[in-house]
Amino acid sequence: MEQRGRAYNAGSTMKQADFDRAAKLIEGFVPGDLKEGLGNAFVFGPIIVEPDFDEDDSSDLEYVWVNIIFDGNLNEFDHAWTAGLIGRLRSRLEKADITAFPITRFIERSEWEDHLRRGRRTVATE
After folding, report:
1. E strand or H helix at 72
2. N or C: which end of the chain has fewer CB within 10 A?
3. Burial class (CB in 10 A: 0-12, 13-18, 19+), 24
4. Which helix (H) or strand (E) holds 28?
């Protein structure tokens, strides 16, 4: 796994300290979970964690985007297993008293590199 990254959005309703705790937990859990579930068929990284919230939702629910950059053959991608990653993350966050809901996004490395060439630092703000 390569690097990880955090992109705190000052406009987010999530407190910086809560975001830092969530990002640290996610960064510690996701690499091992990906390795366990998908083995060596893929190379993952960076993992970019970003806070967000739904402006149209009266519940003020906060989200944490987990952008997972990968290399590998999509024919070997186990979509059922990766869909369960949200539940596994949610459980970990709840145990740490973090209420933000995780949303995972798997992005092929070529798309990520193109995104960076266009001068964008993160993907969740597109």
Report:
1. strand 62-72
2. C
3. middle
4. helix 16-38
Query: What DSSP state is assigned to residue 41?
Result: S
Query: Token pair 């990002």 is at which residue?
Result: 23
Evaluate whether 41 touches 82 at the Cβ level (below 8 Å): no
Q: Look-up: residue for tokens 């990254």?
A: 5
Domain ranges of the chain: 4-117
Residue tagged 């390795």 (tokens): 35
pLDDT tens, position by position, for the chain (126 residues)?
A: 344 444 445 455 667 888 889 989 998 999 999 999 888 889 998 888 888 766 665 556 788 889 999 998 878 888 888 889 999 999 999 999 998 899 998 988 888 887 777 655 444 433
Can you name the CATH fold of 4-117?
GMP Synthetase; Chain A, domain 3 (3.30.300)
What is the predicted pLDDT for the residue at 86? 93
Helical ranges in 10-119 per DSSP H: 16-38, 79-83, 85-95, 109-117
